[in-house]
Design a protein that fits this description.
CATH architecture: Alpha-Beta Barrel
CATH topology: TIM Barrel
Largest sheet: 5 strands, parallel
Number of strands: 10
CATH superfamily: Methylmalonyl-CoA mutase
Radius of gyration: 22 Å
Number of domains: 1
Structural class: alpha/beta
Strand order of the largest sheet: 1-10-9-8-7
Length: 482
């Protein structure tokens, strides 16, 4: 089954403050951007407001801090939320960030059913790869499922989850492991939704995926083709979906940050171009091209523009978008596609026999498999079996210096000050009342998303909402695995 051709271009944005990111959004729109992607900073991802002691030194470092509804308003000021698709890199606090987006949409007069975009919301891969989880897996899965259920019922144009192989691959997994563990996680989400009584054909068309594109050009193309076949098989044969829309693999691709080098950073332009072209030839429907300087810092405006132009040249000048599967029929590609599909399905079956992805994560099996793969890949580089131009071969005697982006310390101080002012000016009693309602709901089984939206509208902060959930569910501390 081949994908319909959609060309939705997204570019990373997260530059130290909501105001700075808003300006970058407007810049990207002026350059022909058709979708927006925002990455939040680590405190926001981990449920801490910027004024928290736990946030010191991390505010705005790897994305934009959003600690109040005012921050979210500043982030999208002047951008009509009914006209753009916004993708959010957010997981443990995905429900809170969507609640803020919904609240700001309401202020703009945009109804729920007109908001378009994606929340990553794939908490299971956090335990495998990124480690920006907060709560234990079972409780985190409940929150992720609440969000999927809410969007299926209230936000038909929103993709409530982007099930990610990207971070799994970036942490050292092979292409086979990327497919296997992403789809094993996807099956957990599907089962959780069906246990809620949701019709598979009601929510499955809203599921989306997120994959990496690495340097092995042909393998990556085959991987994306195999992914479509695997998902169609899972949905039809295992979950008995009937709607053809449920069988379609909707996926976004990002070029690989892990493959970029700080040495000879201009070489990264070539790497990104090859990776982007592989994603397009493999059938991606949405694409993010990394900037050449991301091994050094958040990208500069010049680097962002070049990354955006890279995918636009592929889209408008290369001709490869004129057909759905340009390399279909190639003997080697078809053979490799079958091999990847077979190997990934075998690994998925192994995880299923352990009781599913959550059980495999809790046992440490998946993490151990990726750790072994990552070690082997690193040794291949260090011992010269895998050649990286500029790193272990064809090295320059003098380092190449380029302009890098630095966070403005004044913007961090301003962010913290505005939060303190925000908290002083609101009604504390109304905030407390909304948080108590959420606390009571967490002890039951009802969907908590409407109560999170209500708390945000009453001007509760992500940190305060997260603290209520921490109190109810506790924090997750993994076992040490040797």
């Amino acid at each position: 089954m081949y994908r319909e051709r959609l060309w939705t271009m997204r570019q990373y944005a997260g530059f130290g403050s909501a105001e700075a990111t808003n300006e970058r959004f407007k810049f990207l729109i002026s350059q022909g951007q058709t979708g927006l992607s925002v990455a939040f900073d680590l405190p926001t991802q981990l449920g801490y407001d910027s004024d928290s002691q736990r946030a010191q030194g991390e505010v705005g470092r790897v994305g934009v801090p959003v600690s109040t509804i005012a921050n979210m308003q500043a982030l999208v000021r002047g951008i009509a939320l009914g006209s753009v698709s916004t993708s959010m890199t957010i997981n443990a606090t995905a429900a809170i960030m969507l609640a803020m987006y919904v609240a700001v949409g309401g202020i703009q007069g945009v109804p729920l059913d007109k908001l378009r975009g994606t929340t990553q919301n794939d908490i299971l891969k956090e335990y495998i790869a990124r480690n920006t989880y907060i709560f234990p897996p079972e409780q985190s899965l409940r929150l992720a499922t609440d969000l999927i259920e809410f969007c299926a019922q209230k936000m038909p144009s929103w993709h409530p989850i982007s099930i990610s192989g990207y971070h799994i691959r970036e942490s050292g997994a092979t292409a086979i492991q990327e497919l296997a563990y992403a789809f094993a996680n996807a099956k957990e989400y599907v089962r959780a939704c069906m246990e809620r009584g949701l019709d598979i054909d009601r929510f499955a068309p809203h599921l989306s995926f997120f994959f990496a594109s690495h340097n092995d050009f042909i393998e990556e193309i085959a991987k994306f083709r195999a992914a479509r076949r695997i998902w169609a098989h899972i949905m039809k044969e295992e979950f008995h979906a009937h709607n053809p829309e449920s069988l379609k693999l909707r996926f976004h691709t990002q070029t690989s940050g892990e493959t970029l080098t700080a040495q000879q950073p201009l070489n990264n332009v070539v790497r990104v171009t090859l990776q982007a072209l592989a994603a397009v030839l493999g059938g991606t429907q949405s694409l993010h091209t990394n900037s050449m300087d991301e091994a050094l810092s958040l990208p500069t405006e010049e680097a962002v523009k070049l990354a955006l132009r890279t995918q636009q040249i592929i889209a408008y000048e290369s001709g490869v978008t004129q057909t759905a599967d340009p390399l279909g029929g190639s003997y080697y590609l078809e053979s490799l596609t079958r091999d990847l599909e077979k190997a990934a399905l075998s690994e998925i079956e192994r995880v299923d026999k352990m009781g599913g992805s959550v059980k495999a994560i809790q046992s440490g099996y998946i993490q151990a498999q990726i750790r072994e793969s990552a070690f082997k890949q690193q040794m291949d580089v260090e011992e010269g079996r895998k050649k990286i131009v500029g790193l272990n071969v064809l090295k320059d005697p003098q380092p190449y210096r380029i302009k890098i982006h630095r966070i403005n310390a004044n913007s961090v101080r301003k962010q913290i000050l505005t939060i303190k002012v925000f908290k002083r000016k609101r009604s504390k009693s109304r905030v407390d009342r909304s948080l108590r309602k959420l606390e009571n709901a967490l002890a039951g089984s009802d969907n908590v998303i409407p109560l999170i939206i209500s708390a945000v509208k009453e001007r509760a902060t992500p940190g305060e909402i997260s603290d209520v959930v921490r109190e109810a569910y506790g924090e997750f501390h993994p076992k040490t695995i040797i």
